Input
Amino acid sequence: MPEVPDHLDDGLSILFIGFNPSLQSGETGHHYANPRNNFYRILHRSGLTPRLYDASEDQDLLKLGYGFTNIVARPTRGVDDIERQEYAEGREILRRKLRQYLPRIACFVGKGVYTEYSRRSKVDWGFQPDPVIPEIHEFVAPSSSGLVRMPMEEIVGIYRRLAEFIEKQGS
Output
């Protein structure tokens, strides 16, 4: 199955970083394409997007200053199908992308994504105090998967912190 293309550009406000694409994302070529994934609903409800976007419009979020990538590019049924070596390679590739594009914020969609990237075992939601790449604010947000048991309002509230930060920065 083909990889889902990254949406990257210089000067992004936020680069959203997932574990890896779902099989549905691999089939469609769009990020967060599984209809049970709440990603676009969360962005809209948190105030990060002015309207509800569809996965087929993922490239349009570049106009808002938002990009997409994953720590592992290969689509799988779930994170259990990712090999340790894929994480090690993906971690280095991701660090190169971050250094090249220098988004203002790297938003890790799930604590597990951030722990794989940072190699830190203890992580809280929100901005991280000691970023791996000092020029980039690192933000850890809950996964948008429909399997997450956290209440939607709590998830939206965490993402709202991003919207507030961007608004204060005048982006």
In short: Residues 17-169 form a domain with the Uracil-DNA Glycosylase, subunit E fold (CATH 3.40.470.10). Residues 61 and 67 are 7 Å apart (CA to CA).
